Please model this.
Amino acid sequence: MITAIVNEEVIVLNEVPENTGIAAEQITEYEGKKYFNPDSAIIVPDAPAKPSPYHQWDGTAWIADDSRKQELIAELEVRTNADTDQKILTGFSWNGNSFYLSLENQMNFKALNDIRDTLTYPVKVKHQAGYTEIASAEDYHSFYLAGMAFIQLKITDGWAAKDALQEKTAGELIELLEVL
Model:
């Protein structure tokens, strides 16, 4: 057996015994041995597996495929958006309490902020570990503005991360895929 590369995939070629009836064009000789090679694969002893779909064989090694840079960027943008959403959902803290900022909660907090001057205080608000009470319309408005500022900061961070992708090489983008 010996490894070979065909169509960007590592395959194993089996040695062919003499007089097997296999057509000559399907046999490749390498270091004095004959191998069944119907796809005319390039023999690469101990060829490493293809590291990712975003690599190509350059004849001696797997390298980042620069022609797929836009695909890499698109995949990383999807992951960055999901990461940004997750940070918004679970990362907001106010007065020592962590709050879920789901879209539903954002709308509820906005609605209460809009009518904060007509509410009876204290107002009970659910956070990740239980409930907290907000004592006044001013405190509620402070809570709401802090939440909106947090969301805007996370969105801005996400935009910056996606913009930075354009400056990276295909190899750097592949490395990012491995950690995100």
The first helix runs from residue 69 to 90. Residues 2-49 form one domain. The chain has two domains: 2-49, 68-179.
